[in-house]
Amino acid sequence: MNPRKIVKISSVLVKSQLRSGRSGSLGARLLSNPPAVLVLDIAAFALSAGLVYAILGAIGTLPAGLESLLDTMIYQVVTSLPAFIALAVFIAAVLFELSVSSKFASSDVVNWLPVSQTDYVTASTLSVSYMYSFLPALALGVSYPLAARLDLQSAWGVAAVLCFVALFAMGALVEIMRAAVNRVTSLVYGRAGRGTIVIRLAVTVLVILTVELGVNPVILSSLIGSFTGVVNAALFVPFFWPSASVSYLVQGQALLSGAFFGLSLAFAALALFAAVKVRARYWSPLPVTIEVTEAAYTPRTGGFLRSLGLSVAEAALVRKDLKGYTRRRELMPYLALPVVFVALIVVQQATTSFGSTETGTTVYPFWLVGGILAVLVGSTGVGQEGKAILNLYASPMSPGEFLRAKLLVAFLFGSTTVVAMAVVSSILASATPLGFAVSLISSLVIAIECTFIGVGFATRFPDLQERPRPRFVRPLGMILAMLAGIFSAFVTALPLLIWPFAGGYLEGLGLSFGEAVVGGVIFGGVVSFAAYRWARSGSSELMAEIPI
Amino acid sequence: MNCRRLDGLVPTPPGPLVAKAPPYAPGQIRVKHFKALRSFKAAIDLGVVDGAAALKVEAISKSFGPTRAVDGVSLELQKGEILGLLGPNGSGKSTTMKLILGIIKPDSGEIFVLGKDVLRDAVETKQIVGYVPETPQLYEFLSGIEYLDFVADMYGMSSGLRKERITQFLDALELTGHENQMISGYSQGMKQKVAITGALMHRPQLLILDEALNGLDPRSAKIVKDLLRNLAKEGFSVLFSTHVLEIAEAICDRVAIMYQGRVLAVGTVTELRKKAGLPGSSLEEVFLKITGTSDLRDIVEALSK
C-alpha cells in the first residue's frame, strides 16, 4: 500500500463525485472541494445535537410512563445507530453506482496509471465513506444528547467508532458491487445474437434485485430466522454486528460487546480484502463490444407500434428508447424496479395480512409506486437522449412526434407496472371483481396522469449532459415532478383510501362509492389534460433550439 | 491549386432540381401534408423554390452570454456548389452551421435553404438537409445498422431504398461486418463513417459537414471527397468546414474564411490570393494573412525552448 497515492486518489474521486453534475452557482463552487464535506459534517453534527438538546430541554421532565417510553426509544436509537448507518449508506451508494453509465467505466484514468488494485480499492472505499460521512454525522448529532440523557456516553462513543467502521465496510461492499456489475456488463463481450442482450439484462436485474432485497432488514431477519429458529437471528447478519456490540455494552456484557466489536472490524477488513480480489479479477478496462444480432439486415417500418397509430418516426423513437432500457446499464434499474416492487409485495404478504381490501385500500401504495415509476421514466425520458439528441434536432421530426413517442414509452412502463401491481395485490388480497375493476381503472388513470406530468417536467427540465452519473432531469424538475405526481395520484385514489374509514359518513352525505371513484377518475382526467397541454408546449419550446 | 469545379464540369450552378413545380408555395405546407411527404422522392419535391439559391444566409448574429459567436455573417451557396468554411478554433464555423440547420436560433438575420425559411419551416427544411457534426453524436447502445435504420425512419425512407443505400455505404466505407456491433465498441473513425452515412443516405439537397473527414482513414476520406464531388455534379450543394486547408483547396469551389465570428473573405482561392496580395502562394499563407495570424515565429520559438 502507498498511503500518499491512496490519499491522492481518494481526493480526486471525492472531487469527481462532488463536481459531477454541479453547475457554476455559488453553492456548487463552495461544495466543490473535499474539505467542504468535513465542514458540512461538523455543521450537521453541531446543529442536530443543538436541536435535540433544545427539544429535550423544552420537554423537561415527563410523566413516568412517557419517561420510560422515551428511555426505551433512546436505547434503541443508540444501539441501532451503526446498523442504520451501514444500511443507509450501502443502499445510497449502490443506487449511485448503478446509475453510473458504463460508457465511463472503462475510461477511468486509473486504468493506465501505475496504481495497484489495493491502493485504488482502498482509496475508492475511503472516498465512498467520506462522501457519505454526512449521514453518520447527522445521526451521531441527534443521538448524542439522547445518550447523554441516559448517561450512555461511553456506549455512544463506541457506537460512533463502529459507525465509521460500518461506513468503511459498506464502502468496500460497494466496491465489490461495482466489480460485479462490470463483470456482468462484460459477460457477453464479443458474443452475438439477441440472446446475449437478454442474458446481460437478466443478470444485471438479478444483481440489482439481490442488492435491493438483500439489504432489506425485514427480509434478512425473516430469512435468517427461518433457518436458525433463534430469537436473535439478526446476530448472524454482519450488518447488525456493530449494533450488537453497542447493545451488549449497554447491558454490561463487556466480553460479548468486545467480541462483536472485533467481528465488526474483521468484517470490514474482510470486505476490503474481498473487494481488492474481486476488482483485480473482474475489473473490465475495455469498452463492451456486443454483436446485437447475426441476422441479415431487413428494414422494418411496420410492426406493432405502427398499428397503434404511430408514425414511422414516432415508432422508431419508441423502439430506440426501449432498446436503451435493455442495453444501457444506467437505465436497467428502471426495468428492475417493477420486479422489486412485486417481490416486496409477495414477501410482505408472507409476513403480514392484507386485511379487508374490497375497495383496494391497502393496495394503494402499490399504485403509487407504479405512478412514481411513470413519473420517473417520463421525467428522465428527454435527458436520456444525451448529446445524441442532436440526431433528433437535425432530423425532420416535429415536436408533436417527439412528445408522443416519449409519452408512449413512459406510459408503457407506468401502465405495465400499475396493472401488474393491481393484479398481484388484488390476488393476494382476494379482492372482489368489483374491487379489482376499480383498482385497475384507477391504476390506469394514475399511470396516464403521472406519465403526462413526468414528460411535462422532462421537456422543461432536461439534463442532457453526459457524465459518469447522468441525471437526465435537473434536480428541481425531478423534485417537482415527484411531488406533482404523488399529489395527483393521491387525490385520484383518495376515494379508495378514505372509504373504509369514512365511507359510512360519506354515504350519509349522499355520496356513493361509485360516485367517489368517478370523481377521482375525473380529477385524474383533468390533471392529465392540463399536464398534456403543458408537456406539448414544453416539447415545442424544447425542440425549437438545442439546449446544449 | 485553384479552387475548381470538379473535372471542369458544371461551370455554373445547375438548373432547378425539381421535376415539377411544388403544389404549394414555400412555408404553406400544412401538417397533414407532411406525413405524405415522408419519402425520399417527396423530400426532393418538398417546397423547394425553383431557381432559389441552395443556401442564403443574411446577416445572422448569435451571442452566448457576452460572447458574440457569430457576428453578421452573410453567405450564399448555389446549387451544385461546394463552399468551404475555414477558420481557426472558436471562429464561429460550427455555430454558423447549427444556425443554418435551424437547431440554434439566431439573434438576428435570416436563413433560407432552397428558398425555405429555416426558422419558420424548420421541420420541412431538415427533410432536405443532411448534417454531420464535428463530433459524431450517436446512440451508442444501438448497432450501426440499427442507428442507420433509425435515421432512415426519421427521413421516411422506404424499405427498399434504405436497404440499398445503407448496404452501399457500409460496403464503400468498409463497415460491412461491423454493422451489427453496438456503436459503443466502434472506433472514432467508424463512428464518423456511420454519421456520414446517416447524413448522406437520404440524398439531402444541402449537406452541412462540420469537420466531417476527421478521424477517417485515407481510403474512406478519399471516397467521401469523391462522393461530395459527384453529388455536387448532380446539383447537390455542400457546406463544408475543415481545418485541413489542402482538403478545402482540393474539393471546394469557393472558400469563406471566418475569424472571431465574422466572414472576412469569400471567393475562389484565386480570388482570395488576389485579395490577400499573395499571388502564387498556398491557401495556408492566404488564410494566415487574412486572419492576421501569420506571424507565428515567436510562438514556435518559445515552444521550442
Continuous helix count of chain B? 12
Low-confidence stretches of chain A: 227-231, 353-362
Write out the strand line-up for the largest beta sheet of chain B, numbering strands in chain order: 6-7-8-3-9-10
List segments of chain B where confidence is low: pLDDT < 50 over at least 5 consecutive residues.
1-47
Give the topology, please.
The complex is a heterodimer of chains A (548) and B (305).
Chain A: H1 3-19, H2 26-30, H3 34-59, H4 64-98, H5 102-105, H6 117-131, H7 134-149, H8 153-185, H9 194-214, H10 217-228, H11 241-250, H12 254-282, H13 304-307, H14 312-327, H15 332-351, H16 364-380, H17 390-394, H18 399-428, H19 433-460, E1 462-463, E2 472-473, H20 475-492, H21 494-508, H22 513-544
Antiparallel strand pairs in A: 1-2
Helix pairs in contact in A: 1-6, 3-7, 4-7, 4-8, 4-11, 6-8, 6-12, 7-8, 8-9, 8-11, 8-12, 9-15, 11-12, 14-18, 15-16, 15-18, 16-18, 16-19, 16-20, 18-19, 18-22, 19-20, 19-22, 20-22, 21-22
Chain B: H1 31-36, H2 40-45, E1 55-64, E2 67-77, E3 82-86, H3 93-101, E4 108-113, E5 116-117, H4 122-127, E6 129-132, H5 144-154, H6 159-172, H7 188-200, E7 206-210, H8 218-233, E8 237-241, H9 245-251, E9 254-259, E10 262-267, H10 269-276, H11 283-291, H12 297-304
In short:
The complex is a heterodimer of chains A (548) and B (305). By secondary structure, chain A is mostly helical.
Overview of the structural elements:
The complex is a heterodimer of chains A (548) and B (305). Chain A is mainly α. Chain A folds into two domains: 3-282, no CATH class; 304-544, no CATH class. Chain A has helices at 3-19, 26-30, 34-59, 64-98, 102-105, 117-131, 134-149, 153-185, 194-214, 217-228, 241-250, 254-282, 304-307, 312-327, 332-351, 364-380, 390-394, 399-428, 433-460, 475-492, 494-508, 513-544, and strands spanning 462-463, 472-473. In chain A, a hairpin with an 8-residue loop joins strand 1 and strand 2. Chain B has 305 residues and is of the alpha/beta class. Chain B has a domain at 6-128 and 204-265: P-loop containing nucleotide triphosphate hydrolases (Rossmann fold), CATH 3.40.50. Helices cover 37% and strands 20% of the residues of chain B. Chain B has twelve helices and ten strands. Chain B has helices spanning 31-36, 40-45, 93-101, 122-127, 144-154, 159-172, 188-200, 218-233, 245-251, 269-276, 283-291, 297-304; strands at residues 55-64, 67-77, 82-86, 108-113, 116-117, 129-132, 206-210, 237-241, 254-259, 262-267. Chain B has a six-stranded mixed β-sheet with strand order 6-7-8-3-9-10, sandwiched between helices. Chain B has a four-stranded antiparallel β-sheet with strand order 2-1-4-5. In chain B, helix 10 (269-276) packs across helix 11 (283-291). The relative contact order of chain B is 0.16. At the A-B interface, helix 14 and helix 17 of A face helix 1, helix 4, helix 5 and helix 6 of B.
